[in-house]
Design brief:
Order of helices and strands: HHHEEHH
Strand content: under 5%
Number of helices: 5
Strand order of the largest sheet: 1-2
Radius of gyration: 24 Å
CATH topology of the largest domain: Fumarate Reductase Cytochrome B subunit
Bound molecules: protoporphyrin IX containing FE
Number of strands: 2
Structural class: mainly alpha
CATH class of the largest domain: Mainly Alpha
Shape: elongated
Largest sheet: 2 strands, antiparallel
CATH architecture of the largest domain: Up-down Bundle
Length: 230
């Protein structure tokens, strides 16, 4: 199986930066509501990280919707393809909404959001107890939704990478890949009848791949059937 197409480097950097920030923000969020002594300092860090996530997600959304997403590996069927796209869009939606809800929630208490210790952001919601109550509930629901969607996302990636071994994780990693061997590597060159047969089969595979608009002689489906092109 050949290595699947990778996301561009800027997408990979943004992805791991977001993952780091989101894990930290969730962790600090759940910690601070159960912490008495360090609530104020954790809340300050939480709000700064949350606003940073908003900035990065706006950049990511612009990046995602202006650039082609690499084709998924052949191990992903049609239904799973819809689930992957749906879950990724859900991650975008929740990660754009959650910081805005947090920002509006603090605004509804009549205070402004302060990031990096001194930068005051404008208030984006009216000073109102009912509005605060709704936004506070929404912030919790979105946090738990995020945990569930991220768990599903990571489980799916690990299932593909460890069980189906289709290199799904390598689409987002930075490690250098080994160059795949030439399709004819290892095929004996002496023109015996059986070697000629192998050469003819490989040549036919090349012609088939070229006809499919692919540059890969092994470009077949998971069970050797011709791949469906998306
Ligand atoms: C993706 C970004 C964010 C995530 C994942 C997140 C997550 C969380 C979580 C898990 C909690 C605890 C919820 C609970 O246990 O009920 C929380 C609380 C809180 N969040 Fe966020 N948050 C984010 C962004 C923000 C932003 C941008 C702000 C404000 C600018 C903010 C302000 C707050 C505040 C003030 C609380 C504590 C509320 C209280 O003490 O009752 N959050 N957040
Ligand atoms: C907070 C944590 C995470 C978030 C919010 C997140 C979000 C996303 C999003 C939105 C995409 C779609 C690509 C894009 O449009 O930019 C994606 C793809 C991907 N993520 Fe994550 N991710 C997280 C954690 C992880 C972790 C821990 C792993 C490793 C197990 C991982 C592995 C991948 C891979 C391999 C892809 C490419 C999937 C594909 O082939 O389409 N992600 N992630």
């Amino acid at each position: 199986m050949t290595a699947p197409e990778r996301y561009p480097i800027r997408t990979r950097i943004l992805h791991w930066l977001t993952a780091l920030l989101v894990f930290s923000t969730l962790f600090i969020g759940f910690m601070m509501v159960n912490s008495l002594g360090s609530y104020a300092s954790l809340r300050a860090v939480h709000m700064t990280l949350g606003v940073l996530i908003l900035v990065i997600m706006v950049t990511r959304a612009a990046n995602r919707f202006t650039h082609r997403v690499p084709k998924l590996p052949d191990t992903v069927g049609w239904i799973e393809h819809q689930l992957v796209v749906g879950s990724e869009l859900a991650l975008y939606a929740v990660l754009l909404a959650q910081p805005l809800v947090g920002w509006a929630m603090v605004s509804a208490t009549g205070r402004s959001v302060v990031i990096f210790g001194s930068l005051h952001l404008p208030r984006i919601a009216p000073f109102d107890a009912d509005v605060f109550f709704i936004l506070r509930q929404t912030h919790s629901v979105l946090a738990y939704t995020l945990v569930v969607v991220i768990a599903a996302h990571v489980s799916a990636v690990l299932l593909h990478t460890l069980t189906l071994r289709d290199g799904m994780l390598s689409r987002m990693t930075f490690a250098r890949r080994q160059r795949s061997p030439h399709p004819r590597a290892g095929v004996p060159t002496a023109d015996t009848p059986s070697n000629s047969a192998i050469s003819r089969t490989l040549a036919a595979a090349d012609v088939h791949a070229a006809g499919c608009g692919s540059n890969n002689a092994q470009d077949t489906g998971r069970h050797g059937r011709p791949r469906r092109h998306r």
